[in-house]
Amino acid sequence: MSVYRFYSTEISAGANVGAASTVGNASLVHVRNAGGTARLVTLANAADATIATFTIPANGTLVIAKESTDQLFAANAEVRFNGVMNINPGAQTTYIG
Fold it and tell me: Has residue 33 got a pLDDT over 50?
């Protein structure tokens, strides 16, 4: 089982690529949908080109890996982002982000 340590303040997702965030240049991001409706999330590169999209279910959470310069945004501010670190049991904690 993966264990994550939060290291940034939770932010609400911007609604378009112009309001997208690198989430503090994080390489691992905890994504949380605080609402009761599934929401589309978009991952874009530093040049604002879409890399991928995915749907986070209502009240869902997940952790995604991305390049530190990649940006995230969602169709609704109920989607929230935090930078996280992966803590491996028995291993030295490594800052990711």
Answer: yes
